[in-house]
Specification:
With about 425 residues, the protein is mainly alpha-helical. The chain is about 80% helix and about 0% strand. It is built from 22 helices and no strands. It is globular, with a radius of gyration of 21 Å.
Length: about 425
């Protein structure tokens, strides 16, 4: 017990507060382009198939590695000089994000769903770019043995940002009856990240070269170097497949959670109270537990615990679909799902962080996270069609089965000692 309490002291480090607030900045826009937007779209009369297609607006999160070398190697003009490589980019991207969310607020999805989708795509592109830099900032600010706690702090903040963009947005929409006002308030919350960026310190890292004659070679190394480094690791293809599949079942369940609750006739306030607010509390517990599990059992041990729990939690949604509008069961379902998801996410983020070489932090982490979400985004786009074909109960059973390949690869990689981690991690 004493050793677990000692491990918790890492959360008192001031850097963890900064990572929490920057995590908030990353989590806020993510739900605004799909999950929360789902309620607005459904209220405007779009059918479930069209709503499901809006999941494709998250594609920039999958392709952010394409422009990550620019963010990794080049300073943003003016603000790069004032704030440094990482903080300069974060600050500029947050300003752009505030404007993009404001533009989304001005859309009318009932009259022109296409332009609403384009605005959501713009928010996602800027948000994905911000994530590239914030992730690099987090990895570079911490030592190896602090990555688990740093992942927990960042994921905690991410979840709070998601709460603001989900339950907070639902409360505002219910109170005001105005989705445009709701999204303008969300745009204002970007100031949390702006203030944190200004008050935080830049990581200890060599500044990028500024000589124009070397810019092309500098960028070429930024593109080729991260790939060469990753491909040099034993079992790199299997590692890539594991990253691709580990969170698949969890993501497929999460994509259709809101449509399920709407179909079961839970009100916006009930969803905000249980699925969002109470769900955040369970998620926070899972995230901090995940950070401690990483510190005590190592990253691989934590991946096992999180992966099994995530898989089992999907079955709760099948029970919910059969039971219908049952608040007690919803409380249990959301509690189990968020606790498991928080633990698994903290372990997975710590794993991806530990795989990165500091020379290529932004690009490698962007590549790894894009890989982890690529298949999930593509399959989630068709989730509405799968529900229409299978029905709710069978769909969530299928999402449970979708978690098995990732766990099988984890077993194989662990047995062959090819996880890509240094000994003892």
């Amino acid at each position: 017990m004493r050793s677990w309490l000692t491990s918790m002291r890492v959360y008192l480090d001031p850097r963890m507060l900064a990572l929490f607030l920057l995590g908030f900045s990353s989590g806020l826009p993510r739900l605004l382009v799909y999950s929360t937007l789902t309620f607005w779209l459904l209220e405007e009369g779009l059918d479930i198939k069209s709503v499901g297609l809006f999941a494709a607006t998250a594609l920039p999160y999958n392709f952010k590695f394409l422009w990550a070398p620019l963010l990794d190697r080049l300073q943003v003009p003016v603000f790069g000089k004032l704030l440094g490589l990482r903080r300069g980019w974060i600050f500029v991207l947050q300003l752009a994000l505030m404007g993009a969310i404001g533009a989304l607020a001005m859309c009318d999805p009932g009259q022109d769903a296409f332009w609403c989708a384009m605005a959501a795509l713009g928010v996602a592109a800027i948000s994905a770019s911000q994530d590239v830099v914030i992730d690099a900032y987090r990895v570079e600010r911490l030592d190896d043995d602090e990555q688990g706690a740093g992942a927990a702090a960042a994921v905690f903040g991410y979840r709070v940002g998601m709460l603001a963009a989900s339950a907070g947005a639902l409360y505002i929409a219910e109170w005001s009856g105005d989705w445009q006002l709701t999204y303008l308030v969300m745009a204002g919350l970007v100031t949390v990240g702006l203030a944190t960026t200004l008050m935080s310190a830049e990581p200890d890292k060599d500044e990028p070269q500024e000589c124009p004659a070397s810019t092309l070679a500098h960028l070429k190394e930024g593109v080729v170097g991260p790939l060469r480094d990753f491909a040099s690791r034993k079992g790199w293809a299997a590692i890539a497949a594991f990253i691709l599949l580990y969170k698949l079942g969890d993501a497929l369940a999460g994509t259709m959670t809101n449509p399920l609750l709407v179909d079961l006739e839970f009100s916006k306030v009930e969803i905000a109270n249980i699925a969002k607010t109470y769900g955040l509390a369970a998620s926070i517990a899972g995230v901090f537990l995940g950070g401690l599990v990483v510190r005590r059992l190592g990253i691989v041990g934590a991946l096992w615990v999180g992966g099994v729990l995530q898989m089992a939690s999907n079955l709760m949604f099948s029970l919910q679909a059969d039971a219908g509008h049952d608040m007690q069961l919803l409380t249990a379902t959301i509690g189990v799902e968020n606790l498991s998801g928080g633990l698994g996410t903290a372990a997975f983020v710590a794993y991806l962080s530990a795989l990165c070489k500091r020379e290529y932090t932004a690009t490698q982490y962007a590549l790894l996270t894009a890989l982890s979400s690529g298949l999930r985004t593509l399959t989630s786009s068709g989730a509405g069609y799968a529900v229409a074909w299978m029905g709710w109960t069978t769909y969530f059973v299928a999402t449970t089965a979708a978690a098995l390949p990732g766990l099988a690869l984890l077993y194989w990689l662990s047995r062959k000692k090819m996880t890509g981690l240094r000994p003892g991690r």
